[in-house]
Amino acid sequence: MKGWDGLVSSALLGTDRRPAHFEELPEHIQERLGDGNLLDAAALATVYKRAGRKPLRELEPLPAAPGEDRPLPRPVAIRRLAAMLGGFQTSALGEWLRAADARGWGVPPEHLPALADYARHRAEYRPLVMAAAGRRARWLADLNPEWRYLHAAVAESNDPEMWTHGNTIQRRTWLRAIRSQDPAAAREALAEVWPTESAATRVDFLSLLADGLSLLDEDFLESALDDRSREVRRGAARLLARLPGSQYGERMTERLHSHLTSTQGVLAVDLPRRIAQSMERDGLDSQNPEGIGKRAWWFLQIVANTPLSAMETAWLKTAVEGCAPEVLQAGWTEAAIRESSEEWARALLRAESSTGDRSPAELLRLLPADEWARAVDVLRQTVDVAELVGGLPVPWPPSLATMILDQLAKVGTNRAWARLASITARAAPPDVLNHPITREPTGEEDTWRRRLVETLTFRSEMYEELS
Amino acid sequence: MGLWDVERVLGLAPDAASAKAGQGLARGEKWTESGASERAIWGLCQGSGKQPYQTAVELSGPAYKCSCPSRKFPCKHALGLLLLWTAGEVRSADEPEWVTTWLDQRAARADRPERKPGEVADPIAAQQRASRRTDRVSSGMAELKGWLDDQVRVGLGGFDQRAYTELSRLAARMVDAQAPGVAGAVRRAAAVVGRGHGWPGELLEELSLIHLIVSAHDRLSELPPSLADTVQTRIGWTIETARVAVEGEKVEDDWLVLGRVIEPDDRLTVRRVWLRGATTGRLGLLLSFAAAGRPLDPLPARPGEYVPGALSFYPGALPMRALLTQTAPRLPAPQPTGLTAHQALKSYVESVAADPWNERWPLVLQDVRPARHGDGWALVDADGDGLEILPGWDVLKLLAVSAGDPITVSGEWNRAGLRPMTCWHGERPVIL
Known about the structure:
heterodimer
């Protein structure tokens, strides 16, 4: 404003030294000022300035995010989402997002910043948050560098620059995406840079070939068995063992036959006396872990890596000569998990076999879900139920959840059941959430029973609100 | 009167710390000249000062009197004395004069009939109090005027060295002069000093507006009554809520809650709830205060809802602050209509014309879109005119709701920018 700076410099130096001049001030101020002093003039000018403020011009509004929004669920559902983001029953957040997405609901946009922050360090939430953000995902990703993951990975990864000049994470993303679209192209791209990559990167990138694995990859993986790095050799062996019809499988089958024969209703085992170089090349570990002898360990690994098609489930009921049957059972468990064999898993569980280092849950999950309840009921005699069901994917089938809740309803509040209750509270499927246990009194104390009922009720209300 | 048990005494403590401190004082050696009569107990307790504190408890109330400066009620001395008494360590004695006087005064007050709201207990005494205060304020204003004139005469240059201590001293003087409003203005001026290159100009603005209060106070009797009320309010005269409820201008409407701003502070949390009448279009402000860590009173409705009721406005040239008497349950409200940036600034100018000291103003902006503005953000209306958002305010929620589309936003405007309070996502209000 005209004349204002003059007032400020008079005020700074003092009117004794620099008397104030008012001639430069706007006329309106001079008229009203009369014989007023510097402070009177400054007061008038201050209000004059404030009143004369103009809107900003030449601003460029952000471009609008294109697309349509989904309809929003009811206000109660939105309030529950806000409560979870505020720290109440937050572990059900992913379930809310999945359920809302499945029913076609959108997420109120004001909660997206909190969700995007939440998923920043929790990769498993990212696809959910991307779906929730809808048309706003990329728009928000441009606003906050910390939310860059909201950019759809596929769109970015088509750029070969990502592979040739990106950082490790970007290159990994690129390779993973290409592998799912064109497995051969991914393998060739990897083979091209193979000799110059570090061992850690080779191990990491090699593991991505698990997706879309086929016999076309065999030559590359065979050559990786001669890699400088032991970890790379192991990784290649693991992949080859998962490849039906491979030469690797044939080599293992040959080894098995030279150490195990089925004669006269007996499995005769002749444990290896030494570990050949060719065996080590195929990823067999010469060093035995604690609790098992060297030779038994070598044999166990041969069994574990032999194609199941070369073996028979009937062997589970056959007498064993020459080694402890548990060695064979542990090997078959590994093989069943490697090949995801429902038949072998069922047979091993039925025979109450030793599962070695593995949890029986890893076999259990290979069975169809509707068999779980029955299998758990049998296994509970010998195995800790919480450990068994804790390894199963959620949500459980209704039969399993109902069976466990029925049991929990009967056992009072003994602390021994707390872990099973806490697992079940999260794993019970939507149509079991109103199990009779939720209508029984829980008492005022903070027991596992009370927390179980609270969580089941919370989830039940959540689904109700989203329906 | 029989002795009380310890639990009953501790049950009177305002908090755990007081209870503990009281127990520490429940020892005979801490007290002198203690005694008990049928109706009261009393004693002298040596504190940190030279004079011992005089503590007395009337047992029927119970009511407490203590000369200590504590704001706890009852204070630790009263609790300590009671505990000492429950232990049987306070002997019967004749009431000393200071106890008798206090008890008699209480008895006399209790005999008086209940007052109606707004009615003054003792008109003559109240008038005397008011006139004493007027004198103190006047002498405070005279002192401030002299100080301001001196500053301008010798210059604000070099002020950044001495400003803080000098302005703080001055603010304290204004509190003594019972002009807390002016004290606050002086503190705000102190905060400007040395901040950024433009601080001398900012300081001159602040000081000139304080000068304006002082000059207006000089001519209080010549001002229109409503403006005189505004000046009084700015100086820091408070008006009893009971009087506002009875005498204040009343406007009935369905009041849309435009939003609320909460300013937490170390000592006092302030909440401003801004309202707009659905039919009258009148704006109103509900102020609430709470000591740090204490809850504020509940909101009459959520932002974006109507609360049907009557506002009783505090007097002034720009009547904004009001008391709400709710007459019906809150209701959902549609998305409000709003202003362009140009109209919004115009409404603020009108408020400044009525009250030149007005700092905050509620705005509803319609069809605005977010835009970058320097390091910060602004909201741009359909004409391309923009208002800046308060620097440093977290805009991400607002941006996520808008996604670049035009939206309606309510906010609190001050010179630094708009502080958004509520925005509307379609018909759905979103609290920011």
